[in-house]
Amino acid sequence: MILDLIDCYDPRLKTPTEPFDFSNPPVNPLDLVTDLAETMLANNGIGLSANQCGLPYRVFVMHGAELIPCFNPRIVDVSDETIYLEEGCLSFPDLFVKVKRPRKIKVRFADPNGNVQTQVYDGITARVFQHELDHLDGIDYRQRANRYHLNQAKKSKLKKGKLSQQSQEVIQRIRTM
């Protein structure tokens, strides 16, 4: 089922989520992941957190080589190397902001069956993981951007239909997934 995305000013986006309780699940985890994945894909996204749909669960999905559902995610290590890349967000349509983040991360999360995994991600997968984890912590990507890059992104958004070349390439990659 495709869920509705909540408004970007909804206070639920600024409220940190509580851990998903596998011993007494509030919803079926597989149904939740399916709904989030369908919603993400219907909106041409590459990541979606539950709270973007108004759900208080500490879970997100992201689209890499395959669908990756992440329950109770956390970052356990980051590389010293950082990189600026433009990020977009389904909660803030057409706003692409350069954000500096660690290039490589080591993470832990549970799958829909509650089995904990440890993974190392780099590149776009690391970036999406960090972006979605921020959502679960009540942080949006605009807070990670410096003032200059945020102002540039807002100016660019005002130029209707004028996305940067990098933004156009990201959108094209998403559409071909």
Describe this structure in words.
It is a single chain. The protein has 177 residues and is an alpha+beta fold. The chain has a single domain, classed as Peptide deformylase (Peptide Deformylase, Alpha-Beta Complex), CATH 3.90.45. It is 29% helix and 30% strand. The chain has helices at residues 29-42, 123-136, 147-158, 165-175, and strands at 47-49, 59-63, 67-78, 82-89, 92-102, 104-110, 116-122. Strands 1-2-3-6-7 form a five-stranded antiparallel sheet. A two-stranded antiparallel ribbon has the order 4-5. A hairpin with a 3-residue loop joins strand 2 (59-63) and strand 3. The longest helix has 14 residues, at 29-42. The mean pLDDT is 89.
Mean pLDDT: 89
The side-by-side strand order for the widest beta sheet comes to 1-2-3-6-7
Q: Helix/strand-derived class?
A: alpha+beta
Please estimate the helix content: 25-40%
The CATH homologous superfamily is termed: Peptide deformylase
Number of strands: 7
Main sheet record: 5 strands, antiparallel
Figure out the total of helices: 4
Low-confidence stretches: none
CATH T-level fold name: Peptide Deformylase
Q: Over all CA atoms, what is the radius of gyration? A: 16 Å
CATH architecture: Alpha-Beta Complex
Task: Provide key terms for this protein.
177 residues, alpha+beta, Peptide Deformylase, five-stranded antiparallel sheet, two-stranded antiparallel sheet
